[in-house]
Design brief:
five-stranded antiparallel beta sheet; 10 strands; three-stranded antiparallel beta sheet; alpha+beta; 6 helices; 257 residues; 41% helix
Length: 257
């Protein structure tokens, strides 16, 4: 989502215009209970996540957004959208304020046939890294989908949004397995809809979904090892060939008995 794609919808009050300006609703980013906005706070672009109007006066939903802020505030990972604050915004109520991650969702890139090799490389490396970080911190979250994976506009860096609503003492096997299945589904969709031929990555994705002879990966770390395995195996083969060649040369150069 680029800042220039829509005309801003200014909902600020006169006394707050220096603090808040250019507040714009992002309908494509809306969630079941939340509206999402982009805005300037003291001239700096940020994003706002707030309860939809019909839920703002409900104590249960107010506790829900407060809990999400508490859970996500201390998360710090380069591929996860960072939360900065939780404060009252005129006309919108209490808002979770995050870094501004304007760009395009993976869903939009797929639909517009704009997925590049760089995007796929980040899905292979940075998405599992973010998943592992979330699981390490025992964060329960909504399913990871192409809609919640954003590639920033200028750099094209992968960012996950909507990454947690509860921190548990530990995650269940179902929680961790769902992430692996969702990863597999995302990769297969990307490969199929872009027509890319990557049999190794396809095999990894099919195993994530239980469609392979081997059992699905037991955790994200095993998944990451499998994704990196092709590179590691290639390097091992190259090193082995070099060592064998050196051994042959040394044997040929040594004086015969």
């Amino acid at each position: 989502m680029s800042h220039n794609s829509q005309q801003p919808q200014n909902v600020t009050t006169p006394g707050e215009r220096q603090r808040w300006s250019d507040i714009e609703l992002l309908p494509a980013w809306d969630e079941e209970y939340y509206d999402v906005y982009t805005a300037k706070k003291f001239g700096k672009w940020v994003m706002l996540k707030t309860l939809k109007p019909q839920y703002r006066d409900n104590p249960d939903f107010r506790r829900m957004i407060e809990k999400e802020f508490d859970v996500r505030y201390n998360l710090a990972h380069p591929n996860i959208v960072m939360i900065n604050d939780f404060e009252e915004v005129p006309s919108l109520g209490m808002c979770i304020i995050t870094d501004d991650v304007y760009g395009d969702s993976l869903r939009k890139l797929i639909e517009e046939n704009r997925v590049t090799d760089k995007h796929i490389e980040q899905l292979k490396s940075r998405l599992p890294a973010a998943m592992e970080y979330i699981q390490h911190n025992h964060i329960a979250h909504h399913p990871i989908r192409p809609e919640t994976i954003i590639f920033t506009e200028k750099i094209g860096n992968l960012k996950l949004i909507d990454v947690g609503f509860e921190q548990k003492k530990s995650l269940s096997h179902e929680d961790t397995n769902n992430d692996i299945e969702n990863f597999g589904a995302i990769i297969l969709e990307v490969l199929e809809k872009t027509g890319r031929h990557d049999p190794d990555l396809k095999r990894v994705a099919e195993r994530c979904l239980g469609r392979a002879a081997k059992k699905p990966y037991r955790d994200v770390q095993s998944l990451r090892i499998a994704i990196e395995g092709r590179k590691n195996n290639s390097l091992y083969v190259i090193i082995s060939i070099i060592l064998l060649a050196l051994a042959f040369v040394l044997a040929w150069m040594l004086p015969k008995a």
